[in-house]
Amino acid sequence: xxxxxxVTFPPPTAFxxxxxxxxxxxxxxxxxxxxxxxxxTFRAGDLFVEDGAISSFVAVELFAQAAAAHxxxxxxxxxxxxxxxxxLGTRKIELAVPSIAIDRRLEVRATQVFAMPPAAQYDCxxxxxxxxxxxxxxxxxxxxMGPPPPT
Length: 151
Prior knowledge:
CATH superfamily: Hotdog Thioesterase
Strand order of the largest sheet: 1-2-6-7-8-4
Oligomer: single chain
CATH architecture: Roll
Number of domains: 1
Number of strands: 8
Structural class: mainly beta
CATH class: Alpha Beta
CATH topology: Thiol Ester Dehydrase, Chain A
Strand content: 35-45%
Number of helices: 1
Order of helices and strands: EEEHEEEEE
């Protein structure tokens, strides 16, 4: 019989170098060797919120933080140290809407399509999953995975 118990992940601060207000990941929903899913709900007063919405351009930062969650959690599992990193560039970013209302449950699903450390590439999708699944943005990002940040 397979164990179908849900996986409980630690808070993002346990495996990501980001800290509020720049930490945009509310929680890690899924992780495996090639992919990651993160969740974010923007609220009034959050960074990037203006007039009850955020620009859909924030998708690029969400994509980058999904990649950071992917290799950060993998580092935590492998030995306890998360890695720092940097967004190197984007390709084929497509935004379906100009802005996103606050209080919407968003998910980023990112799949690592190339890795040659320290570089990696991820195909990403930002979805509004509040009611069904609505694609907000898609794109490919290139990131550099660095050493753990100094303590």
